[in-house]
Amino acid sequence: MPIPEDESRTPAGSPAARGPATRSPMRCVRLLLGCTSAAELLGTVLAEGPNWITGEGSALYLLDPAGMLRLTASHGLPDWAHERYGLVDPAGELPAAMALRLRRPYLLGPEHTSVEYPKRNAGLGTGLVAVVSLPLVVDERPIGVLALALAHRGTVPGRDLDVLETIAGACAHRLHHLLDHTLDHTAGHTGDRTGNHSGDRTAQRLAPTPDAAPTRPLLSLAVRAAGHGAFERDLVTGESYWDAAAFAVAGRPVEPDGTAPELERIVHPEDLPDVQAALAEALASGGRYRIGYRLLRRGGKVARVEESGEVMLDVHGRPVRMAGLLADVEHRRARDAEPPHDPAGARTALLLSLTRALSRAVTVRDVTAAVTDVARPALGAAGIVLDLVDEGRLLPVSHTGYGGPRRAELTRLADLSEQVRSEQVSSDQVRPGQVRSEHAISEQTVSEQVSQPSPPARSAPLFSEPGAGPVGADAPAAWAVLPLVASGRQVGSCLITFATERVFSRADRTLYSTFAGILAQSLERARLYDTHHHRAGELQRAMLPRTLPRLPGIASAARYLPSTEGMQIGGDWYDLLKLPDGRIGLVIGDVQGHNAEATAVMGQLRSGLRAYATDGHDPAATLARTSRLLSELDTELFATCLYLTLDPADGGLTAARAGHPAPVRIAADGTAVELELPGGPPLGVDPGQPYPLATARLAGGETLLAYTDGLVEDREEDYDESVHRMIGGLELWARRTGPERIGAAPALEQLADLLTLNVTERRSRPDDVALLLLHRMPPDA
């Protein structure tokens, strides 16, 4: 079903548009029933649906008259995916076809997507994606398929599948209504991404009215009637789009592809610093914003406009998209009656906004994110490349700070940065702001660049001059190279590039030079933090087992993830012990706190508990002795702990808990349940309190999961709900894996990966995470 190309990209499709306080499945369904297009439906699902719908790689297919599934709306799909999966045969084996044919949700976990869809950079975080395809069916009539990327990473409990099917049902009924009752709004033929041409009335009914330029799916009829223009900016690729009304507001001819002109070309020079400062504030905080400024129209005329929009964040809290309206503001007072403009004050406001964004950055990665997410769009730059001096070499740190079609260009820009800086060091005649027009930019590789020694701290910023001529096919139209100097020594360099030529005024050069100083201080502070964190991490790893012992009849797997807050270390630990009587000891614990003290206390407890256990004490006595040990240490910290022993011969379990989450048993048939183990107080709280001893049995073919609460704890969800979600995911994994493979070492390692991948997709991880999986082989294995 061909549609206009614009319809395949959702405006509100960013997960950033979600408001955590108002999101609920019922609200989402209610809003879906009022949508007027396929793109709006998909955008509403992503904006109002549950948090665990990530958005990236989501799509909506509709059946065309030829019986083919045609991509109608999408979010986060790269060009190769549009080309390869724009048209799907329902009789084929692709997920959308399988879902429609089977009339039930069809789930692909990361173990499938990483193999079957090798260009997995469409996903988030680790690059692995889990995708569920939901059939859209009304009264046995198939309409299409809704495909959504999920943060579950393959472990989707039944209750979440129910929510997804409810959302898909609402989409199907709304589409059914639109297909049957919406009047045609388009005329003629419109090309789609695959080169087909539309005579399809179904697509026309779901597509927005075309203008002289492609219309992004942003405006309702009411907004059109008000005469406002709409805009959309992709903060990842740097691309910006206007609809025809926006070009009319700006008094400019419509660009055929809808590409918006750069702010530097249309905003009044006196207002540009104000606009940049306001954008920096909006990008740093996200959410709605409003800016008033003057636009330069053709013929020297000036129009006062108001831009109101929203900065949308992804699941990690980073700005990915801006969308909103551009309105013409009527002059009602004389220009000389307006308060005088203060360009210096505006530039100061911009620097303060950038400083605030960088002050919140803790690690070098955070600094890079602040530069690419806030500074780059606020300054109107096409790209920013950061390099750090490390042991006399210049190492790139931000070439992949953001993706899009410019990634290959960034490597080329690194060559430019290195060569210009080399010229600067070798020539004392080059004054700040002046560059020789005969730049001989070499084609040396990155490996050759970084082998060169770093320049002295006396290096000055360099700015391109208009009319100097392009350096090469990939060279930017304008650029600034800023040495980053902190504490009297150069810590790196920053290359800022622009898509169009520009003149850098004295005030501009002062602004960029000051920004370089602020950036250098932030990088130096972040590198110091990273160094301390690395050392603390080494201490943490030294406290944990390097490998798990190989035990007859037993398969095991373990994982540890540090916290993403504070020093990013903590007191979680695990251990697997070979006991003298032939039993196996499983230990997992969590010391309060996320600092070096917690790690040190954890090491003492681990050593003490191991000693008590190998002396032959049962789990209850072992925990009682370890609790007294903790109370005698010079610390106010307490700890939770689970210790159990397993007899490999008959599967007999003895266990004791000290305020720790109960382990989960996964049966051979795929069911999962928490073991009922009575517990006592955390270690160190009441050293005289005994711990009850419980017994159970782990049958052959069964698996035991012991974990710390960081694995399931989520600030946006009730703890019990999180545990139930994890148990549902374990059952789904067990059913998909099958009893014959569930205990195999690769399958157990895969489960450990899936459990931790769920954690890594959260916005933050306030607690560290430890988990230990233990599988008892069946007797005939």
**Number of DSSP strands?**
27
Helical residue percent band: 25-40%
Placed side by side, the strands forming the largest sheet appear as 3-2-1-6-5-4
CATH architecture assignment name of the largest domain: 4-Layer Sandwich
Write down the CATH class of the largest domain: Alpha Beta
The separation of the N and C termini measures 53 Å
Q: Please, what is the average pLDDT?
A: 75
CATH H level of the largest domain: which superfamily? PPM-type phosphatase domain
Pairing-aware structural class of the strands and helices? alpha+beta
Give a brief outline of the structure.
It is built from 20 helices and 27 strands.
What does this structure look like?
With 781 residues, this protein is of the alpha+beta class. The chain has 4 domains: 202 residues, Beta-Lactamase (2-Layer Sandwich); 113 residues, 2-Layer Sandwich (Beta-Lactamase); 191 residues, 2-Layer Sandwich (Beta-Lactamase); 233 residues, Phosphatase 2c, domain 1 (4-Layer Sandwich). The protein contains 20 helices and 27 strands. Strands 3-2-1-6-5-4 form a 6-stranded antiparallel beta sheet. Strands 18, 19, 20, 21, 24 and 25 form a 6-stranded mixed beta sheet that branches. Strand 1 and strand 2 form a beta hairpin. Helix 12 packs parallel to helix 16, helix 16 packs parallel to helix 17 and helix 17 crosses helix 18. It is globular. The two termini are 53 Å apart.
Topology (SSEs and partners):
Layout: H1 25-32, H2 38-48, E1 58-63, E2 69-75, H3 79-85, E3 87-88, H4 95-102, E4 106-108, H5 110-116, E5 130-138, E6 141-150, H6 158-181, H7 201-206, H8 221-226, E7 229-234, E8 240-242, H9 244-250, H10 263-266, H11 272-285, E9 287-296, E10 302-313, E11 319-328, H12 343-359, H13 364-379, E12 383-390, E13 393-396, H14 407-426, H15 446-450, E14 462-463, E15 478-486, E16 489-498, H16 506-543, E17 554-561, E18 571-578, E19 584-591, H17 596-614, H18 619-632, E20 639-646, E21 652-658, E22 664-666, E23 672-674, E24 679-680, E25 694-697, E26 703-707, H19 719-737, H20 745-760, E27 769-776
Parallel strand pairs: 21-24
Antiparallel strand pairs: 1-2, 1-6, 2-3, 4-5, 5-6, 7-8, 7-11, 9-10, 10-11, 12-13, 12-16, 14-15, 15-16, 17-27, 18-19, 19-20, 20-21, 21-25, 22-23, 22-26, 26-27
